[in-house]
Amino acid sequence: MKLTKQTLQSSTDQVYDTIIVGGGAGGLSAGIYLQRYLLNTLIIDKGKARSFWMQELHNYLGLPPDTPGRSVLRQGKEHFLSLGGDLLDAFVEEVIDEGETLALRVKVGRNQSEYYTFRTKYLIAASGIIDYLPELENMRNVYDYAGYNLHVCLICDGYEMADKKVGVFASSAGNAEVVFPLGWFTDQITLFTQGQFEVNDELRSRITEQGYEIVETPIEQFLGENHQMTGVELTDGQVVELETGLISMGSKYHATYLDKFNLEKKGGNLVTDKMARTSHPRIFAIGDLKVGLNQVVVAAADGALAATQIWRDIRRSGTGKRVDRKVNV
Amino acid sequence: MKLTKQTLQSSTDQVYDTIIVGGGAGGLSAGIYLQRYLLNTLIIDKGKARSFWMQELHNYLGLPPDTPGRSVLRQGKEHFLSLGGDLLDAFVEEVIDEGETLALRVKVGRNQSEYYTFRTKYLIAASGIIDYLPELENMRNVYDYAGYNLHVCLICDGYEMADKKVGVFASSAGNAEVVFPLGWFTDQITLFTQGQFEVNDELRSRITEQGYEIVETPIEQFLGENHQMTGVELTDGQVVELETGLISMGSKYHATYLDKFNLEKKGGNLVTDKMARTSHPRIFAIGDLKVGLNQVVVAAADGALAATQIWRDIRRSGTGKRVDRKVNV
């Protein structure tokens, strides 16, 4: 059930089999599998998964290629709740290792916040990442196009950019490298650095060799209408026409609650075994937080793997029988 | 496009970037990703994927929990064809390694069959497995219930069997072991050996210790109506009432076309790296054929991984640019 400040008391008195931090594609898939293994599951979700911003999910098997990401999330939440799972809109601030259990300090309510402690045998970190966007004075102007024809994922949306005039908005020499794989899809590429980083001679010559442009003047605003970006206006008043865009400015990882566990990482991502277990035996990581391909279908599969391994762990740690567990529906 | 004997000639004259053997969940997902990477893809499908038999897919994120497996396959085929992929209803008999390419000898047409050779840079083996079913004189009687309440997958359908009287139909002592994880879901288990294998003292005592029954008399027929199995009649006339069933008789692997490659295997399944590549650099394996969890969502994710790695291989092996490739839509 959906927990509220009024109804969550009974949930803080019990120990969950699994608490999932994050109600995106990975977390919901894990929750569906866990509830079907008859394990008590709580998903703590602060809302706005990365897929929430996807206006059209083009590559997810079984869904028409114009399905909005938020439809998948809505269907997944309904599915999870129909199986008797618990869902709480809240923010996880800290996790404490108590040995047999993990205790989560959770902030409930954006205003007049209250703090509660939830306990669980296993934790699945499914809180994902969010893409950094160009910082303009008027962020509304960025949100108007991001997720429409201003993309954040080459693998997801390279196809949509094929043979088009693409602006690439990067924040470092490292993430400007995306122009090269993007070159598979189109020859018409303009890199916008906004003057935020230096393009050294070696990178500059590799880019210009390919016939791509480099613009270093900062952006004043994106131009367009009806969520279709048609170009950018620079701070010097110049206008560059574009047909579509790719933002490559890195990502913020939503996993500060795990910081003090010092879990094994590779380039910011959590390292897991093939069943999505991190270097801590009771903590799993799925979706964009872990090393691997940042795709909705991969996150959903990660959820199935983590849930299955947790079921095996719990089953094997006891008598192999359920005790005091009933089917929820 | 859908290829036929009349239209396939132009397809045998070209070299595909990838040919996928099998049009189930894994193959279709791979095909969708490959076409979106602007790679020419042919799926060769002999029909009737394992998921085709699933009357209700209960655990796939984004779809209502009563979605038939065949709806996912239909949607996936439509999606793949809309991206310009080629699809052929045929059977792959043999694969020959030609170095830079692989040549597939393909039988087209169940009657008046003709043989054609298709060439590809990469091959994805997505031809899956199919479960062995109890062999009764009247197989119609088995098909009436299999995929409804006579299940083949504990992970998929344990939830549906919870707290019910379940018959387990096994064909070896090894696959009879499924009664123990099934014990997580229900205490009311009857193992049917049909006299096909011996239950040694050790296994017998482990089973009876749990309070499960063992029936060794062969089955005459399943009883029930409207695809709901309600019990079995044994060859001695005895009737055992049941509420549901689980078949655990092993699986047939659809991969004889790969036999002479001697790919690395583990217990019948192909071993792959984390991007689904087998021990042959141009052959990938996804879904139930490979080591891992046999789940639709995992197969779909495997398809995304294999397709992405093939794209990287092809891109990096050339100039990084598309040559003579156009967007198909």
Name the beta content range of chain A: 25-35%
Helix tally of chain A equals 9
Terminal Cα separation of chain A, in Å? 12 Å
Classified by CATH, the class of the largest domain in chain A is Alpha Beta
Order of helices and strands of chain A: EHEHEHEEEEHEHEHHEHEEEEEEEEEH
Tell me the CATH topology of the largest domain in chain A.
FAD/NAD(P)-binding domain
Largest contact between chains: A-B, 54 and 54 residues
CATH superfamily of the largest domain in chain A: FAD/NAD(P)-binding domain
Mean pLDDT of chain A: 94
Number of strands of chain A: 19
Could you characterize what this model shows?
The structure is a homodimer of 329-residue chains. Chain A is an alpha/beta fold. Chain A has 2 domains: 2-130 and 251-317, FAD/NAD(P)-binding domain (3-Layer(bba) Sandwich); 133-248, FAD/NAD(P)-binding domain, CATH 3.50.50. Helix content of chain A is 25%, strand content 29%. Chain A is built from 9 helices and 19 strands. In chain A, the strands form 5 sheets. Chain A has a 5-stranded mixed beta barrel with strand order 2-3-4-5-6. Chain A has a 5-stranded parallel beta sheet with strand order 8-15-9-10-11. In chain A, strand 12 (219-225) and strand 13 form a beta hairpin. The longest helix of chain A has 22 residues, at 296-317. Chain A is elongated and about 70 Å long. The model of chain A has no long low-confidence stretch (mean pLDDT 94). At the A-B interface, helix 2, helix 3, helix 5 and helix 9 of A face helix 2, helix 3, helix 5 and helix 9 of B.
